[in-house]
Write a structure and sequence with these properties.
The chain is of the alpha+beta class and 538 residues long. The chain contains 12 helices and 26 strands.
């Protein structure tokens, strides 16, 4: 089925975009994640990727041409698919909609609408900020952190908030200067794109009137009017106890307010911990991440969980984050569309242990067993491109470049940053990059580009004491390797029972692209590298 791609709104102030360059042309096959075009916004020129797969059937805006946000940009579908209906029935322009509405409304009703519009006009110098659409697939966003609070002075370029999309958490900057008069979406709350996010302007204006004007439904909207909450005066902003946490600029809050980092606040909210019960170990008693992770309710004298009589059912509901929704969708699609099968092996790790000890004795050098596995996989994949392949409905793609995704657990689920050209990198380079990805992944600072393009994935739960497990393939890839812990146990060597160190690995393969023998041959090559790691550096 054909998918319509409209001109995205890539910044809060973007009203139209210019197609600087088309990377694909009509007739080209498109994969999810391919760069379709470079689009020039009012701020910068950005690469625009496809979130659909198929053939590029139509280009609606030529290179050098500009068009309003939501104008037909392209159509992707199946080869030979009839799209004449999509092209002959475009959405009516705003002027046409206005004319239709005017014809259907009586003169009395028109007068009434006009009168209401005049009453709810947004004053000059006041800026209404809506929830931006930061990716083509984004339908709603979640405010992860507000960096400013009502009453704060905002300058152009200041980071207003961190917004969680279906891809990543991104900093959202202000394109206006003034006072933050109103916050429409609280931290942790989700709202559709174009919902009222904030209002910036002069502090002496009537905020309630601006909110009403910003939320006023038009004659063609299908949504009911939104009840306008009462807004406190901005000249003397008040702080409620539940809001007594540090702002996102990492500066402690004084004057009786709790001192806590934004990450500590977020973790406390996820775990249901009352910050008032936590002793801070940071500067000036500031609550930091480790305080939340080590917090034990029984030691505080106050339980953070509500009292529940024995024998009574109890539960809590946690809204699904954007990341969790996407993970659920993609894992389900992979598990029920790709015919998985699994190959399990057990490697001798004695040489790897000795190699790592010697390697890490070098100055400023420290590599992990996971780094060794990633490097070994990269070299093995160069010899077995079938395992480094990807499945698409109309073809199989054998990749001769090796981009290895490394699964990283985060509070909301799992992200997979990608080590590009892993076969060309040294062990220390891989180690440095993976560590950097892991830290920024947990802080939701990875960019979408850093999580795209993998050709193979490594998932390691060995550090959690898991001996053996299976993983779901990260499509469109053809395989994923599950890495268990290193276990010391009796083994047979040269006919003698001795103490050895082994590690179990399980390769999940897509049977559409990787046959059993092919997967087994890959594991044999991988065995040679991991059991003799010196061969990877000579």
């Amino acid at each position: 089925m054909a998918e319509i791609i409209n001109m995205p709104r890539l910044s809060d102030t973007m009203e139209e975009g210019v197609v600087a360059k088309w990377i694909k042309k009509v007739g080209d096959t498109i994969s999810e994640g391919d760069i379709l075009a470079e689009i020039e916004t009012d701020k910068a020129t950005m690469e625009f990727e496809s979130f659909y797969e198929g053939v590029l059937l139509h280009i609606g805006i030529q290179e050098g041409e500009s068009a309003l946000v939501d104008t037909l940009l392209a159509i992707v579908g199946e080869e030979g698919e009839d799209i004449s209906g999509l092209l002959s029935n475009p959405k009516p322009e705003a002027e046409e909609v206005s004319a239709i509405v005017t014809e259907d409304v009586s003169s009395e009703e028109t007068t009434e609408v006009s009168s209401t519009s005049e009453q709810n006009t947004i004053p000059e110098g006041v800026e209404v900020i809506k929830m931006p659409r930061l990716s083509d697939t984004m339908e709603e966003g979640t405010v992860a952190t507000w960096n400013k609070k009502v009453g704060d002075t905002v300058s152009e370029g200041d980071i207003l908030a961190e917004i969680e999309t279906d891809k990543a958490t991104m900093e959202f900057e202000s394109f206006y200067s003034g006072t933050l008069l109103y916050i429409g979406i609280k931290e942790g709350e989700s709202a559709p794109v174009d919902s009222l996010l904030a209002i910036i302007g002069d502090k002496d204006i009537n905020v309630e009137a601006v909110v009403a004007a910003a939320q006023e439904p038009t004659a063609v909207t299908e949504n009911p009017p939104v009840e306008v909450p009462k807004v406190e005066a901005v000249k003397e902003p008040q702080v409620k106890a539940a809001e007594a946490v540090a702002p996102a600029d990492e500066k402690p809050v004084t004057e009786g307010r709790l001192k806590a980092s934004p990450l500590a606040k977020k973790l406390a909210k996820e775990k249901g911990i009352d910050l008032r019960n936590v002793a801070g170990t940071g500067d000036q008693g500031r609550i930091v991440k480790k305080d939340i992770e080590s917090y034990v309710p029984s030691q505080s004298g106050v339980s953070s969980a509500p009292f529940v009589p024995s024998g009574q059912e109890h539960f809590e509901e946690i809204p699904n984050s954007q990341m969790r929704k996407v993970i659920a969708k993609r894992l389900s699609e992979s598990k029920f569309s790709a015919p998985h099968y699994y190959l399990s092996v057990e490697f001798d790790m004695d040489n790897s242990i000795a190699f790592r000890q010697q390697y890490n004795s070098l100055p400023d050098t420290k590599v992990s067993f996971n780094d060794i596995v990633v490097k070994a996989c990269a070299l093995a994949l160069k010899q077995h491109p079938q395992v480094n392949s990807q499945w698409f409905d109309d073809r199989m793609q054998l990749n001769h470049h090796v981009h290895i995704g490394v699964a990283v657990a985060v509070p909301d689920g799992l992200v997979v940053p990608v080590v590009k050209f892993a076969d060309e990198q040294t062990l220390p380079q891989i180690g440095t990059q993976v560590k950097d990805y892991a830290v920024r992944a947990r802080d939701k600072k990875l960019t979408p580009a850093e999580m795209e393009g993998s050709t193979f994935t490594v998932s390691n739960l060995g550090m959690f004491g898991i001996d053996e497990f299976t993983s779901i393939i990260n499509q469109p890839n053809s395989a994923i390797l599950s890495v268990g812990s290193i276990v010391q146990k009796p083994v047979v060597k040269n006919g003698q029972i001795v103490v050895g160190n082994t590690m179990k690995l399980t390769l999940a393969c897509d049977h559409r692209t990787v046959d059993g023998a092919t997967g087994a041959q890959f594991l044999q090559t991988l065995k040679g590298f991991i059991e003799n790691p010196l061969t990877m550096v000579v």
